[in-house]
Amino acid sequence: VRSQDSYSLIDSYTFLCYHAKIRRVPTAATYEYSVNYNKDILGELTNFNSYETQLKAAIEEFIIITKDFVTLNELFSFVLNIKDEISDFSSSLRISVLLRLLNMERIGPLLIDDQIDEIYLDSSQSYLYLDHAKYGRCSTQIRLNRQEIDSFTNRVSLENDFNLNRENPTMKGEFVTKLFHTRITIDIPPLLVDDIHLDIRKF
Q: Which end of the chain is less congested by CB atoms within 10 angstroms, N or C?
């Protein structure tokens, strides 16, 4: 992980419960994007694990009632409209808790940030990088682990009814939700030398 001590803060902005920052990387004359929780919800974060337990139970009951595969958009709608005790914590934080339950805690904010046009991953060993609407190509220090990559890939496969495997090594799909619209391309071997490539484009 690269140190950000010498990076110059160029811009910052908030969305939902997140705070994004753009820094200039002095050695490369490029920009780096980072995102963390907004300081306004830090008090609520102390109860994050409790919220996660409550929301997980509510989602499991919702899935049992629907008796069908539940899309990402249906999950967003469900958690934003809960009327029981879970409604005590902010709607934006509910989205963050849901993303953790889906194993999308690190890539999720990039999908939601409407200033990001496109997201790339070149292999499971590389960092995400992105195209920002205002600052162009930006690096990040976000590296997804294998479980996160598999969870994301499986979600795309299920929502687009596609079986990604060595016989079908390229998948094109979409996430169409109330929070973001994306077109997603995933490539795996034998089409690649590396293990996986992701291209996520907003529209």
A: N
